[in-house]
Amino acid sequence: MSSPDRTRWLPTRAFSTAIGILSALLILAVLLRRQDLLIIALPLACSVLFAIGGRARQAAAVRIVSDNAMLREGQLTRLNLQVSAADELDLVRLETPIEGWIELTGGGWDHCLAVAADKTVTVSWPLTALRWGRGSIGPVHVTSTTALGLLHASSRSENRLSISTAPLQDSFDAIDAIPIAGGIVGGHRSRRPGEGSDLAGVRQFAMGDRLHRINWPVSARTGSLHVTTTYSDRDIEMVLVLDPSVDIGISGGVHGSASTLDVAVRAAAAIAEHYLRDGDRVGLINLGRSGRPAMSRSGRGQLFGLMNVLLDLQPGEVAEAGVDRALSSIKDRALIVILTPLLGSDVPAHAAALARSGRSVLVVDTLPEKVQLPEPQEWTDIAWRMKLLERSNITQALVERGVPVVPWRGPGSLDEVLTGLSRSARAPRVRR
Amino acid sequence: MKLLLPDALHHRMQRLVNVAPGGYRSVVTGLSVRLVEVMAGTALLLLPAHQHRLLATVTIIGIAIALVAPATAGSGLALAGAVGGWLASAGWQATPELPRTIAFGYGLYLLHTCCALAAAAPLTAQLSWSVVRKWSLRMLLASAGAAVLIAVTSTLGRIDSSVALQTAGVVGAVALLAIPVWFVSRSEAGD
Fold first, then answer.
1. Which residues of chain A, if any, have pLDDT below 50?
2. E strand or H helix that includes residue A201
3. B168 and A38: CB-CB below 8 Å?
4. Fewer CB within 10 Å: N-end or C-end of chain B?
């Protein structure tokens, strides 16, 4: 807590006004022999004398406390300001600066309260995270007022609260149909027979088959031993590739409009959370900083790592050489999910090249359904329509080259495409 | 709220409510403080037997400034104008009635205290009930004391000049002038 040992109280304008008026009244009373002026001065003089005599010695100390430092978009928590004072204070004004997409719902950025001696008062407001990103609260500017508003002192709260808002709102649910389940163990059905729960078929008993796999009804009916075979359950490796080269649209927070970057970040976070929760390995390549990819790992720590990368995402140039190097480092059996608004031709070209080389590639279209263009001018509408035509051509070209393109519309968007990818992955292909 | 206020005032209130963290409650509390300022100022204008036009204008301008920007010199201007008006109302050597004099002194105190509160807690700030309760209680106690004094002194009539009162005035003036000097020297010693 910010507890100054010796507070330097400064006189307010009310103090100088009171002293000036009282002095004038008393001098005039003497000079003009007017006792009524003395009586007039009496209430104000008593008030000033009592106020100065009973003033507080120390200013208020304030500490910022929040229930959570990591929030989801739209999540509500509480911001608490603990105000303590050694002496009674007439008024303590708390001005709380807020940075980032955070809202103090019930007000609270400018609050006045009175504090009793040796008491700690906690004032609390609902705090809502409006949009993904990093934000901060504080340090709180504290103005303590004592002596009936005649003296004041300014201080700041010692601590400042950093709040990270993860781009997660609803959990993403996809059906369990992954084209390449390539690990040793895991939760997804692979295309290879082995230990698992999904039925692959019934075949004749062979040496090495486990006895508990014998299908007794079929064996009794056919007269020879048959076993039930299953597909093995394995994990997958997924690499999310983010294209931050273009950011179109206006961010309006969790309940407002979304920009392309908003959609990309939210989609990446939802997909990563879903697959990491299932025990899969997920990596992330930000094409704007392709030299620093987040390697594929599994676990909750990886989710926090990926969130940190996503929170720092900024729109920026995509360096061609770096992109080639980053994409070539992805393992052959990884499922590559490219998140792009398809407003440029470079990233789609890379997606097509990856598909041609036999990789499982999926493009998630991150252009929102309704795009709010900033500062529309005379030619903006026509230019935007031309851009959309070009985008449509790019999408069509990708589909023709076997790269599925799916618009991100929240949870469940990828189900259909993952099913298609799974089916197409079974077909023989030539690797170039 | 819209039914009670004209459109222009309603729009201004709406803007304030949008800015103020506490919404209507906060704005209403802030406006109540300013309403008391206006009432105290009006009392200061009405209490002198005859009002000097120029000094009354100065007082009104001072109150208006204090309402809009309480942390400025508005309250000082209003108080100075009111005292000048009091002096000019019945001539330099007049002896006004005691209850009227006490009421005027209480009016000065009230206007000054309200201006101090308004300066410390702007209209856009959210005022907690603890502040409202504390300051209201003080003002109510002062009002009760003033009311009792006015009631008691209404039977005494006018006060005459005396050496004791004049000595008290000189001592009071010196003591009051000593307060800022003592305060400044204490602050510097504290550094």
1. 1-4, 432
2. strand A188-204
3. yes
4. C
